Amino acid sequence: MRKTELAAFLFMGLTPSFAQLGIAPQQENGEAIVVNKCGVSVYYVSMGDSGSFGTLSPDAVYREQFRLRYLGADYPGEDKYGGISIMLSPNQTITAAVDKQQAFFQSTITQFEYTYHPLEPPGLWYDISNVNGYVYNTDNGWNGIRPWPFQEDGLIVEGTSEECATVVCPGGNPNGNSTCIQAYTHSKDDWATHGCRNNNSIVLTLCTEVTLDE
Ligand SMILES: *[C@@H]1O[C@H](CO)[C@@H](O)[C@H](O)[C@H]1NC(C)=O
Ligand SMILES: *[C@@H]1O[C@H](CO)[C@@H](O)[C@H](O)[C@H]1NC(C)=O
Ligand SMILES: *[C@@H]1O[C@H](CO)[C@@H](O)[C@H](O)[C@H]1NC(C)=O
């Protein structure tokens, strides 16, 4: 299986106002929701320690309640809990492939990443990562030219309350630059990680700029 880099989650930069809110009990966890507005099938794997492959048809919605990923007692402190990556690709080569799952893992992906942390306020971190979104490993994405998987039609991430920062990756080449500045392009782009209370849900809408003419 292709190795993916889960972006490093930053716990240090959280503002005290979030901490004061405390963490909601796990049974109140919100959901990670993906809405496919792309007009073509999008393929996904929700990856923790393992993950299974699925297809999101046009206009279909994928949702999962935020999952706890306990890494083990050997990990110190806050590192005991790991992230989940909802790996996504609209690559239509997968549609034609006999082994779709194998084709998926050979494709570039955009990742909708989150960590539910039961001990570290505000309880939930999330980001969009294009670290594995470029065809050639040597492409660093910052050249503003290379496409990432949803570059053509863009995406948006919104929470169910104002506590949760919005992430916008416009479609096309705004200002001549196709790089999504609000997503991870490199693994240390930690400004792209946001936190809010774990009883919020986070909705990722893919292809926000598809028009009916397309
Ligand atoms: C699309 O998928 C195919 C087969 O998995 C892969 O070879 C190709 O590089 C992918 N293209 C992109 C842009 O990710
Ligand atoms: C695209 O934007 C990124 C982030 O602001 C910047 O680092 C990069 O140099 C830009 N590339 C071009 C070609 O303007
Ligand atoms: C999360 O829980 C807090 C405390 O019970 C509540 O004030 C807040 O409205 C909840 N947020 C959501 C999105 O349900």
Radius of gyration: 17 Å
CATH architecture: Sandwich
Please estimate the helix content.
under 10%
Specify the overall morphology.
globular
Please count the helical segments. Answer: 3
- Can you identify the CATH class? Mainly Beta
Q: Uncertain runs with pLDDT below 50, 5 residues or more?
A: 1-19
Structural class: mainly beta
- Ligands bound here? 2-acetamido-2-deoxy-beta-D-glucopyranose
Write the element-wise H/E pattern from the N-terminal end onward. Answer: HEEEEEHHEEEEEE
Could you tell me the number of beta strands?
Answer: 11
How would you state the average pLDDT, rounded? 87
Distance between the termini: 34 Å
CATH topology: Thaumatin
What percent strand? 25-35%
Q: Biggest sheet: strands side by side, in what order?
A: 3-2-5-6-7-10
The largest sheet is: 6 strands, antiparallel
Number of domains: 1
InterPro entries: CetA-like (IPR006771), Osmotin/thaumatin-like_sf (IPR037176)
Keywords: Signal
Pfam families: Bys1 (PF04681)
Signal peptide: 1-19
Summarize the structure.
It holds the Pfam family Bys1. By secondary structure, the chain is mainly beta.
Task: Give a verbal description of the structure.
- 7% of the residues lie in helices and 27% in strands.
- The protein starts with 15 loop residues before the first helix and ends in an 8-residue tail after the last strand.
- A hairpin with a 7-residue loop joins β8 (155-159) and β9.
- The strands form two sheets. The protein has a six-stranded antiparallel β-sheet, with no helix packed on it.
- With 214 residues, the protein is mostly beta strands.
- It has one domain (25-206): Thaumatin.
- One 2-acetamido-2-deoxy-beta-D-glucopyranose is lined by residues 142-144, 177, 179, 181.
